[in-house]
Amino acid sequence: MQDFWKSWAEAAYTSTGFFWMALWAFILGYLISSGIQIFVTEKKMQETMGGKNSKGVLLGTFFGFISSSCSFAALASTKSLFKKGAGFIPSIAFLLASTNLVIELGIIIAIFLGWQFVVGEYVGGILLILISWLIVRLINPKKLIKNARERLKGEDDDDKGSDKDWKEKMKSETAWAKVAKQYAMEWKMVWKDVTIGFTIAGIVAAFVPDSFFRTLFINSGPEVESHSFFTILEHIIVGPVAAFLTFIGSMGNIPLAALLFGKGVSFAGVMAFIFSDLVVFPVLRINAKYYGWKMSLFILFLLFTALIGTSLALHYSFDLLSLLPDPNNVKILESEHFQIDYTFFLNLAFLIISGILLYIGFFKRKDVKHMKEMAPKSQVMENIMKYLAFIAYAWLIGGWIVRIWVV
To answer: How far apart are CA 298 and CA 89, in angstroms?
Structure first.
């Protein structure tokens, strides 16, 4: 029983330590994302994404890069842009960029996994877009695209975007109040995923033996110096399955990705795990609601095929350039998380900035209204996630009590 108490305390410490490591990065990323979403309107994006040529794809990628990393927000924005005339390929580019190329995700990956994975994330995001573009050009699903656009025509058009110049908005207190409300909305969208994801990472680190990962990801282990093609392919396919089983978005999955890599899962398998937030069932269901099941299944095929190709290309390119990261360099489990160091001061500074912004939005200018369209989530799943998050909080508090007074 003593071993259980010790593991519980270790799990709680690891989970909260992971979150403390990443807190300033979450705040910085969501502050930047919120500001851009208020100062750059969806109408401005749509006006430049009408075609399927390279300019439309490039702009779709850029606008995705400066958008929210939340999959549900990205799905809703993609649907809105496509409905208002953006080309299908630029819309897919926007969707992939807004979930794989965003600033906050890169910062979190840098903290937990290192620079090679940051490069892999951004280069991989571009490869996902290029491979998807190539597949669409080869298959040319004109009828599917036409039917999907027709299906969206009956929906109400709710475009409340302002035509004000962004420089004008920067001087407006009302705009900053909207930034504050968008910032709060960003946290509201991810708090359950982040809570559950970081808690699971701590539990996995403390309780799950290495043998489990060796069974799930064949021929894995920190001592394995190289992997065969079929081993890498198995890791790439199992990565999205593992991500689906966690029910967590990419931001909450990064600590778990770091644990997988530390356990010896291949670089390609970990990248596939990170890339997989758009090939899970909730996203399939939402796309079916928007565009119909045929188009939803086509998007699933498109993104999963691109994911496999991208992960393989990244792995062998990094291997060729001798840039594959070493799993032995992932030392997050050995860190002393709560110290008076740069993380402490960054967290303190960004918490103060958050407080000032929230004061403007919810106290000084609480009259300002701001709403952002979200993809329709399953209420049952949302309730499950909420209760799991509350259970996670109870687990973490209990673990800290055990750590302080029992162990």
So the answer is: 13
Query: What is each CA distance from 46 to 41, 87, 355, 368, in whole angstroms?
Result: 9, 9, 33, 25
Q: What is the phi/psi pair of residue 203, to 5°? A: -65, -45
**How far, CA to CA in Å, does 95 sit from each of 159, 175, 361, 379, 393?**
19, 25, 28, 23, 32
DSSP 249-306: -HHHHHHHHHHHHHTT--HHHHHHHHHGGGSSHHHHHHHHHHH-HHHHHHHHHHHHHH
Identify the pLDDT of residue 51: 56
**Is the Cβ–Cβ distance between 42 and 94 less than 8 Å?**
no
Contact of 116 with 325, CB cutoff 8 Å? yes
The pTM is what?
0.80
DSSP-derived secondary structure letter, 364 = I
Asked if residue 127 lies in contact with residue 314, where contact means CB atoms within 8 angstroms, the answer is yes
**Residue that wins the pLDDT comparison between 144 and 42:** 144
236 and 308 in contact (C-beta within 8 Å)? yes
